[in-house]
Amino acid sequence: MHRLCVILVALVLAASPVFAASEKHQKLAEELISLTEGDKILDSMKSQMAMIFAQFKAHLEVPEAEKAKLEAYDKKFQAIIDDDLDWKKIRSKYIDLYTSTFSEEETKAIVDFYKSPAGKKLTASMPNLMQQSLNIARTHVQAVIPKLEEITSAMEKEFAPQNATQETAPKK
Question: Whose CA is closest to 127, among 29, 50, 36?
């Protein structure tokens, strides 16, 4: 039994490097995140959250005497955002995501691409491309909504009980 345990432990230890990304792979993943400005995603999210919170506060009718309390909530909100969405705390999860998605060779090839002029242009253009893509999708979705509403309305009419009032009336 003891020998079996030793063999199992040895197998687990031998297999561990296979599952863990090498230090080089982790560095490449970190470089890829930096090149694609993936580390700035959190900053963008924090800015959006702060803007939404500011809009929420603007709708509150807070008397002047209560403004200090509002500021205290503002500080708590900002502290949570700064602490819980700190890149240093989340960085390793991003690296793990990239190293589990791409092999070391693939990560290296992607890093090389993003270092190229075309890769740099893609990174610089991506925010605008994403915004324009969303606008295109939004326009098409808005055009489709009336058609879908027409179908659902027709379905409701076709499958609605024929005499809803007779069905709900008490039986004699």
Answer: 36
Q: Do residues 74 and 146 share a domain?
A: no
d(CA 74, CA 78): 6
| Per-residue pLDDT reduced to its tens digit, 29-80 | 999 999 999 888 889 899 999 999 999 998 888 899 988 999 999 999 999 9
Q: What is the DSSP letter of 46?
A: H
Distance between CA atoms of residues 89 and 153, nearest Å: 50
Question: Does one domain contain both 47 and 100?
Answer: yes
CA distance 158 to 136: 34
Distance, CA of 7 to chain centre = 42
Separation between Cα atoms, residue 149 and residue 152, nearest integer Å: 5
Indicate if the pLDDT at residue 14 is higher than 60: no
SS3 169: coil
Together in a domain, 126 and 46: no
Confirm if 104 and 22 have CB atoms less than 8 A apart.
Answer: yes
**pTM: predicted TM-score of the whole model, two decimal places:** 0.65
Q: Where are the beta strands (DSSP E) in the chain?
A: none
Residues 64 and 149 reside in one and the same domain: no
- Whether residues 111 and 51 fall in one domain: yes
